[in-house]
Amino acid sequence: MGKKITITKKTDTELENLGVRNWPTWSCEVSDFPWEYSDQETCFLLDGDVEVTTDEETVRFGSGDFVVFPKGLKCRWKVMKPVRKHYNFG
């Protein structure tokens, strides 16, 4: 069994307790690109529609989703609607 992407929903209180709104913001236009995670990344999608494909699965997420990408994950991002997200490494 390999590395899995975790997608959940968080309440406003949970997001506040994690300090998500203070994390850096990243944005990306519609695109398709490979990516490898050198560290675990946790992010909260403010806007967008994304499909990420690994060797084991394809997942889709968007606005309001809380996503964790494990360290060492190799994948392909397909951004179908422009993305804005708060993110945190480690």
Question: Can you describe this structure?
Answer:
Helices cover 8% and strands 57% of the residues. It has one helix at residues 12-18, and strands at residues 6-8, 25-28, 31-36, 41-53, 58-62, 66-69, 74-89. β4 (41-53) and β5 form a beta hairpin. The relative contact order is 0.37. The mean pLDDT is 97.
- Name of the CATH first level: Mainly Beta
Estimated radius of gyration: 12 Å
Q: What is the end-to-end distance?
A: 22 Å
Strand portion, in percent?
A: over 45%
Number of domains: 1
Order of helices and strands: EHEEEEEE
Question: CATH homologous superfamily?
Answer: Jelly Rolls
Number of helices: 1
Overall pLDDT: 97
- Percent helix, as a range, is under 10%
Any guess at the CATH architecture? Answer: Sandwich
CATH topology: Jelly Rolls
Number of strands: 7
The backbone outline, from C-alpha atoms, is globular
